[in-house]
Amino acid sequence: MDIGLPPAVVTALTFVILGLLVWVLLTRTVLGRGFSVPLRNMLRGNETAQYPEKPRPVAPRFHGRHQLNRYADGLEKCIGCELCAWACPADAIYVQGADNTVEARYSPGERYAEDYQINYNRCILCGLCIEACPTRALTMTHDYEFSADQRSKLVWTKEQLLAEVPPGGEDTPHTDREVRQRGLNYYGGLAVTPPTLHGGRYKPAATAPAAKAGDIVPTGQLPEPDELPPDPATVGGPTRPEPGRDR
Fold this sequence. Notes:
Radius of gyration: 31 Å
Number of strands: 5
Largest sheet: 3 strands, antiparallel
CATH class of the domain at 66-182: Alpha Beta
Helix content: 10-25%
Low-confidence stretches: 190-220, 228-243
Strand content: 5-15%
Mean pLDDT: 77
CATH topology of the domain at 66-182: Alpha-Beta Plaits
Strand order of the largest sheet: 2-3-5
Distance between the termini: 116 Å
């Protein structure tokens, strides 16, 4: 039936109706929404990265390889509490703690991590371990290039995870005499955490106040180098009274 419309108008109406049908298909049906994804990207430019010559930067909060941090003087932040191992859902962390001594101090606390291992065959890089760490000793870097051709090479030890000694610091172990002479506040909050986004208020640990230094190092007279060190449990205060004696 001839309705008397010019051919140009009929052609235009045909394209409009087809466009509406395509729009309904792409926006109102599951199959259409699936097709819309490649159709939108067909007109975009290529985003090929020249890896590994020019790797693309990762997100600021990317979870990569772990790192055991140090203080500014070289002491280790890890106190061997094993909270990271308990928090790990994949059971990929092993920590063996040991006690610091007067002549061999690895951390400012009572204990340190004598053995620390992370099995990257099992690690899922979820970050729960760093959330559980009370001293910010364990953090995650942006390094993701640590694949290996053997499973045994993916078990990283403390020597591989421990950060480099900061400039001006010394490698562990230290002595209690050296630690006490520095007078650093090892538990000063933002003053000793890594320099992340703190609004420019970051201060190196060397300039932190020493108000709590006496709480974390022995306060008694330390032995001379040629003397036998006393029991570390009695350094810095009186011993517990014997049963039956008055305080």
